[in-house]
Design a protein that fits this description.
By secondary structure, the protein is of the alpha/beta class. It has two domains: 2-122 and 308-320, ATPase, nucleotide binding domain (Nucleotidyltransferase, domain 5, 2-Layer Sandwich), CATH 3.30.420; 130-303, ATPase, nucleotide binding domain (Nucleotidyltransferase, domain 5, 2-Layer Sandwich). It is built from eleven helices and 13 strands. The chain has a five-stranded mixed beta sheet. The protein has a five-stranded mixed beta sheet with strand order 11-10-9-12-13, with helices on both faces. Helix 1 (41-59) crosses helix 2 (97-105), helix 3 (114-125) crosses helix 11 and helix 7 (225-233) packs across helix 8 (237-261). Bound molecules: zinc ion. Residues 166, 179, 181, 183, 186, 188 line the site of zinc ion.
Length: 327
């Protein structure tokens, strides 16, 4: 009976979270998170293996009884080859994670982009239930999307499908901002939580973001999207201007994604977007206004429902079955 549990892993830059999921209900039966001691592939594989062993112990199953696994990685992954082509927060390029982990765990492992995994989880058990065409737009420390088209996960020819954070936007003239990917003018350079905090520090140092800095307790290290939201709520003009700019960028990019791919559900997720009510409202207003009229038919915007579990649930389902290519 317990052999029916599916293993999903969410691999981020600071930790790995392993979860045993009931594939029939999407319920996380047990989960364990472990920080990376080091980010070398060997050390990360050891961390994942230990997190899996602990999650299995908590669920009361033998780790050896698990037959499949899916791993969501914050980075560019090459479909079924198990290769992680580029994972900036791990400092990885061309790491054969699927092969390394299969060797350590003793069974097959499917590697997938983390937002693709989250989109798959939301589609099966969350906010995109029941639709075959859905897009998840995620704004947290970074910006990205997961795409399900015709009931299949769309990863693109080289695993770049859904990299919404790196479409070029560069608004309002002047020098475009540099993105963590090394390119200039990406959406993530303006809207991602990490880049937003960097911009706030620069502008606070220039004396422009006083109310936001006050909302961060006067500590530049604590400047964040939530400090902008707090200043916005107090009517601060800088915060209002910033949210108008960032909300328009995210909303327009999302609307264009919807016009291009015609999903019937747009799922909004991530700590910055879901943690800042006013930013979310501005994003939604631009989506409502800018999606091509013909693509609005039967189209809905919803908030992600599975939270942190979306990635492990989706990864577990994708690891256990061939859903993304046959349905
Ligand atoms: Zn970029």
């Amino acid at each position: 009976m317990t052999a029916r549990l599916a293993l999903g892993v969410d691999l981020g830059g600071t930790n790995a979270r392993a979860a045993l999921v009931d594939p029939a209900t999407g319920q996380v039966v047990a989960a364990h998170r472990m920080p990376h001691a080091e980010r070398t592939p060997g050390a990360v594989v050891a961390t994942i293996t230990a997190a899996v062993a602990e999650a299995a112990r908590l669920a009361g199953v033998e780790a050896a009884s698990l037959a499949t696994a899916g791993v969501g990685v914050a980075g560019q992954c090459l479909g079924r080859s198990g290769m992680v082509l580029n994972a900036p927060n791990l400092g990885w390029r061309d790491v054969p994670l699927g092969e390394l982990l299969a060797g350590a765990l003793g069974h097959g492992v499917r590697i997938v982009n983390d937002l693709s995994a989250a989109a798959w989880g939301e589609r099966r058990f969350g906010a995109a239930r029941g639709v075959d065409d859905a897009a998840l737009v995620f704004v947290g420390s970074g910006v990205g999307a997961g795409l399900i088209l015709g009931a299949r996960l769309h990863e693109g020819g080289r695993g770049v499908g859904g990299e919404l954070g790196h479409i070029k936007v560069a608004p309002r003239g002047g020098t475009p901002r540099r993105c963590g990917c090394g390119e200039w003018g990406c959406l993530e350079a303006y809207a991602g939580g990490m880049n937003l905090a960097a911009r706030l520090r620069e502008e606070a140092a220039d004396g422009k973001a006083g109310a936001v800095l006050a909302a961060a307790g006067g500590d530049p290290a604590r400047l964040s999207a939530s400090a902008v939201e707090a200043a916005y709520l107090l009517g601060d003009p800088y915060a209002r201007e910033l949210w108008a700019e960032v909300g328009e960028l995210i909303g327009t990019a999302s609307a264009n994604l919807v016009t291009l791919l015609n999903p019937l559900r747009l799922v909004l997720g991530g700590g910055v977007l879901l943690g800042c009510e006013n930013l979310e409202r501005i994003v939604r207003a631009h989506v409502a206004d800018r999606v091509l009229r013909a693509a609005r038919r039967d189209f809905e915007v919803r908030r992600a429902e599975l939270g942190d579990d979306a990635g492990v649930v989706g990864a577990a389902l994708l690891g256990g079955r061939d859903d993304s290519h046959a349905q």
